[in-house]
Design a protein that fits this description.
two-stranded antiparallel ribbon, 67% helix, 3% strand
């Protein structure tokens, strides 16, 4: 069966499954719409949380980031998984004990202030909308390549599918759909990794394959990769870090506390029956997430080696009897000349996968020295030896541009794996983007219908009216998300890290102080959240432009690019969080003490006794 037909079958069947589940588990009450009736099993919830969490950024972009950054990409692994440990230990059980539907509702009640609740809604909407743009862009990229449509048409199809199961199913439909999506996306991630690890190292476990020798040689895969990339002028794969040591630390912390402050993940812990279940479902989520996150470094490294091996014969990769990429031990040991004329791939002989990806515009070739061959190297290198070799070989500049987002999606095609594996990855990429988009849309919709409409504008709204408002809010949010996905403000790749920075500097400190401090008052919490949001956005806009409009940057005001102690805008959420804590503490010190009944509420949330079902009441 030809590849395109196989892809249509796999993607079609997965969509039919999601829509079928959404219809079977549709929500009939606000409790089912917001928290799936509060009766989800911890293992089920752990799996749904993992799907909610492993977005297009995790599935599509993370291995690409690691592939590009090498060791520096570890900030994403440490930050994103470490954030789950924080969530499981410090937030989930206490918020579940409090027993309400949403994060702003906890902040409003704990800080005895409608204004605090409304500021929390504002921060939640900014973080969630920023995050969702990346998901919609991911849907567009995946559809464009695998269904043979344009990126814009892909986003329209994605909007329609999310609309169908999220609006009708609510949290109940989304939960069981996400379980199915997790199964699809984890299979799609692991199966190609098993194949590729086996082909390159003879060990089918990718985590072990990454540290193994290349098949038939005594040369380790990572040392071979280091040798290839440094010879071609790129940074050494195993030592390149994400900026300065301070920046790497701040970046990791920002991703960690941003993870723990993301509302669409926190709300999942309100769907289980008991406090103990909140802890155990966080543990299960970590197990399910670890399957993908411990595999990602191997996927990134092996994809990079496969890509170099495809366009440069001197790397030492060849095709086996089945047409798959395999190791040529003699060529690997020989350490051939990467700059030799015959080593570069003749463009007309490029594999089919390159032709397919060229159509999407995410892979581009430009023949700068008119020799009809593909030269892929770092032409901006400061490595004088590599520069000299390139000039001597008559190379006139790097000719191949590879978008980092295609690394995972193209990985099985680069390794020339069977069509069914490629089709499985297509279904997995879409499952990852759609599951997170649905979770984010639910967080946005509950913030508008439950926190703004019922909490501030019309407290006496009926349950039926609130349910309808939630569905309308979600439908509007889908159209806004689709519009932003179609017209991204030029920051689709950075948006996800930025969303974490916003959550880290606003929501996380407010939750931590709300649970663990009896002395932070209403004015302190409001001032802290606003200060954290302002400082973070001020620094980000200095680098990226006001509201991401090109030409409005003002880096001189913050001491030049990364002027604040070498910290990058993506890592600045940590500074925003420190500002939030400090401002909240100082303002609370100067204001009235926290009322006695609120101090007792804080005490009761922290005492580990049973909690009832999550409710929407006050």
């Amino acid at each position: 069966m030809e590849l395109q037909t196989t892809i249509y079958i796999f993607v079609g069947l997965s969509f039919a499954l999601y829509l079928g589940i959404a219809f079977w588990a549709r929500a009939g009450s606000t409790s089912e719409f917001y928290v799936a009736g509060g009766g989800v099993h911890p293992v089920t919830n752990g799996m749904a949380t993992a799907a909610d969490w492993m977005s297009a950024a995790s599935f599509i972009s993370m291995a690409g980031l690691i592939s590009n950054m090498g060791y520096g990409g570890a900030v994403f692994l440490m930050g994103w998984t470490g954030g789950y440990v924080l969530l499981a230990m410090l937030l989930a059980p206490y918020l579940r004990k409090f027993g309400k539907f949403t994060v702003p509702e906890f902040i409003g009640d704990r800080f005895y202030s409608k204004a605090a609740r409304n500021v929390a809604v504002l921060c939640l909407l900014v973080a969630s909308l920023t995050y969702i743009i990346g998901q919609m862009t991911g849907v567009g990229v995946t559809f464009a390549r695998f269904l043979g449509v344009s990126s814009e048409q892909g986003i329209y199809i994605g909007m329609a599918i999310v609309f169908a199961y999220a609006v009708f199913g609510g949290m109940k439909g989304i939960t069981y759909t996400q379980v199915a999506q997790y199964c699809v996306l984890i299979a799609a991630y692991l199966v190609p990794a098993f194949f590729i690890s086996l082909n390159l190292t003879g060990n089918f476990v990718p985590q072990l394959g990454l540290g193994s020798d290349m098949a038939g040689t005594d040369i380790s895969l990572l040392s071979k990769l280091d040798q290839v990339v440094t010879d071609l002028g790129f940074g050494q794969y195993t030592t390149t870090s994400a900026g300065s040591m301070l920046n790497m630390f701040f970046y990791t912390v920002s991703l960690m506390i941003g993870t723990a402050g993301l509302p669409h993940v926190i709300v999942r812990f309100f769907t289980v029956p008991k406090v103990a279940d909140a802890r155990s479902s966080a543990g299960w989520a970590l197990v399910f997430i670890a399957l993908l996150y411990t595999t990602a470094p191997a996927v990134g490294a092996m994809a990079k080696l496969n890509l170099h091996g495809t366009v440069n014969a001197a790397v030492g990769l060849t095709k086996d009897a089945d047409g798959r990429i395999a190791v040529n031990p003699d060529a690997v040991k020989a350490n051939g000349d990467l700059y030799a004329t015959e080593a570069s791939l003749v463009y007309e002989q490029r594999p089919d996968w390159m032709k397919r990806w060229e159509k999407t515009g995410l892979l581009k070739w430009e023949d700068k020295n008119a020799d009809g061959r593909i030269q892929y190297y770092n032409d901006k290198t400061k490595n004088e030896v590599a520069k000299g070799k390139a000039e001597a070989a008559g190379w006139k500049g790097n000719e191949l541009t590879v978008n980092a987002d295609i690394i995972v999606l193209a990985n099985p095609e680069i390794a020339l794996l069977p069509n069914w594996v490629i089709a499985l990855v297509a279904a997995g990429g879409l499952a990852a983007a759609l599951s997170t988009a649905a979770g984010l849309l639910l967080a946005i919709s509950s913030a508008i219908s439950h926190d703004l409409i019922k909490g501030a504008i019309k407290p006496d709204i009926s349950e039926k009216g609130e349910l309808m408002a939630g569905k309308i809010a979600m439908a509007v949010a889908i159209f806004v998300a689709g519009y932003l996905g179609l017209n991204p403000p030029g920051f689709a790749a950075g948006t996800v890290a930025l969303a974490f920075g916003i959550a880290a500097s606003t929501i996380f400190p407010a939750l931590m102080m709300g649970i663990f401090s009896r002395t932070i008052n209403n004015n302190g919490a409001i001032a802290g959240m606003l200060a954290g949001l302002f400082v973070t956005l001020f620094y980000v806009f200095a680098h990226k432009g006001l509201f991401f409009i090109k030409g409005t940057e003002y880096v001189d005001m913050v001491g030049g690019v990364n002027g604040f102690f070498t910290i990058t805008p993506e890592a600045f959420g940590t500074v925003g969080a420190i500002v939030n804590f400090a401002v909240a503490y100082l303002v609370s010190k100067m204001g009235a003490p926290v009322p006695k009944h609120i101090q007792e509420l804080v005490e009761s949330v922290r005492v580990p006794k049973g909690a009832g079902i999550a409710t929407g009441g006050h």
